[in-house]
Hints:
Elements: E1 2-10, H1 14-29, E2 34-41, E3 48-55, H2 58-65, H3 71-80, E4 81-88
Antiparallel strand pairs: 1-3, 1-4, 2-3
Helix pairs in contact: 1-3
Amino acid sequence: MVTFVNRFSVSGPVEEFERLFEQTSAFFVAQPGFITHRLMRHAEQQGSYVNVAEWEDAESFRRAVTHPDFAPHAAALRTLSASDPNLFTTTVLERHSG
C-alpha cells in the first residue's frame, strides 16, 4: 500500500475548490487500486487543505494520475490552488491508544 499526501493552498473561492475536489474524488473512487481518501480543511488557516489517500500500490496511483480523464480535474484545481503532492510507501512508526 502507498499513501498519497497533497497539501493545497487555495487562492480562489474555497467553496469552488471543494466542489471541484468532490468531482475529482468521484474520478479517483472509480480507479482500480484506489482504497480511500480524506480531504481535510486546516483548523486555523483559511484556504489550507490536505488530501490523504491510500492506494493498493504506486502503479495504481500513477496509472490514475496519468489517465487522460484526470487532466481536466488537475487543471481545474490548479486554477484555484497550489499544491505540494508526495507519495509515501513505508510506515516508520505507528501507535494507537489503549
